[in-house]
Design brief:
The complex is a heterodimer of chains A (about 190) and B (about 400). Chain A is α+β, with helices and mostly antiparallel strands and about 190 residues long. Chain A contains three helices and eight strands. Chain A is globular and about 40 Å long. In chain B, the strands form eight sheets. In chain B, strands 16, 17, 18, 19 and 20 form a five-stranded antiparallel β-sheet that branches. Chain B has a domain of about 160 residues: YVTN repeat-like/Quinoprotein amine dehydrogenase (Methylamine Dehydrogenase, Chain H). In chain B, strand 28 and strand 29 form a beta hairpin. Chain B is globular. The chains are: A alpha+beta (about 190), B mainly beta (about 400). The interface between A and B is large, with 55 and 70 residues.
Chain lengths: ~190, ~400
Amino acid sequence: MTKFDRLSEAAVRGLARFTSRRGALATLGGLVTGGAFLPALPVARAAESHGGKGYDGVAPQSTGNPMDPGDPASCDYWRYCAIDGFLCSCCGGSPSACPPGSEMSPITWIGTCTNPADGRKYIISYNDCCGKPACGRCLCNRNEGEKPRTRPQSNNDINWCLGTSTAAYTCSTAVIIGLALDEASPK
Amino acid sequence: MALRRERGALLAICAAALCLGLSLPVQAQLPIEPTPNVNSLPEQYPKDWIFIVDPNFFAMEGGKVVIADIGASVRHEKGLLSLAQFGFFAQAKTRPELYTVETFYSRGSRGVRTDVLTIYDKSSLREIGEIVLPGAKRAQILTESGAFQLSADEKFAYVFNFTPAASVTVVDLVNRRIVGDIDIPGCTDAYPLGGGGFASFCGNGAVATTHLDAQGKLISQSMSEPFQNIDEDPIFTRPTIIDGVGYFPSYGGRIQPIDFNGAEAVPGEAWTIEPPKKKRAGPFGLFKSKGGKSARGKWLPSGWQLEASDKDGLLYILMRKNATPDDHDTGAKEVWVIDPKTHETIRRIKLKEESALIEVTKGDTPYLAAFRLDGSFDVFDAQSGKWLRRIGGQMVITPFAAYGAE
């Protein structure tokens, strides 16, 4: 599509959403069922003072799969390219699982991260885990491709503990939910 | 023998102390202090004071707002309010009241959720009213002022809701009751308009206006033409507002003005932030230059609350060197001061450490507060750029917003 087409389409779609009560549903539909979140910056970035290679006092982890390389307990793990929150890997969970007793949010936002092992772009769902205390470990904030809250489905500054029995935030996961389509590939 | 000597010495000391005590004037005795004793604050806060919003990510039920005097050299902390679970804060100018929006769970981090807007007396910091927000839907986000605003006449409060269906709850602050909810599908936030109602920013790159009647009820909604391309160069949702005009920086380094003064939100012409022009010194500027040289490299707006403004209408913005648009929330070591009328960057302030949160006080001597990553903050004379002091001591843990007292 040309830039003009995209712009026109966005404007028309936006108008349609706004002028209809069904717009709320459309917005909902625009959000991927999956998860992620938020908190941030200043503190998260304190973690980077450790050189971005893990956190002081947090033992490095491995997925055990050479095709899924890196340390899931480190902010520079490839799936965390747009995460904003406490890493569940450091909190009794994993990149794809919540800590025991917490609840995984069914509503979330997504990012697109490149796996250095196969060079493929994966769609990552940053599901938040909810209902236990804020974990407090491994606060990580990366914003590759992140957009402002005008595009909530691409924003990590929101508490995505939505649709859960409690909205109290615990930590964030980074679940692979698919391969990203190459924009250049035929539709 | 040794024991006797010690006893003797002890007696001598006691006798000396007794004589000394008897010889002291009665007035030297410290007065009895009454209890209980609780401080209070003035109804009108000095404009050197700021409100610091700290959601406290490590224990979000323990977030707070700290009131701090940053112009003073001592006794910086003046008071504090609670702000649980991604709370919001706002201050009134026409009434001695402060407002918070918080969420509580009946069992700490679980149980029945209650969202509540609390009204505080500015002088006593006591709760003088509360309005329960229905529906367990108010947005829980990193602090952004656009999610909780007072109407231009301060009669109403606008609370942004996100479930993720987007809406705004209108609260009557005078009669302390809910007016109702207004859907803003595909849009976010509620900036008050001078003509009544509020403006919201939408996913198609446009700004929507919600028109309200005098009772805060919906009259109609309208939408501008898209004025930004969110895919290519989105504007931050964290502006500074000067004389009713919001100045929204973009990831790519533009400033987009939006006029909130009228009945509709009106996008103005955006401009690109440029480094200060070189100032040449000496006859004909032949000998040396200063001001522009070290501004080489790609400078982009970067930070959380990355903008502020002073009483003279100057705009302060955190600018990061060698930045990419993905650094948008990171923070920076420089603040650039821009005259939004001429679009010219008139000076640069070098910070002590990188900061993602700045605010400038609104008094005659504007003070720039620049928060460090550890939660402490540096105070500068905003006009000269001179560093004055650092304030810390765990006043705040994870601050995300600061607002000058108005």
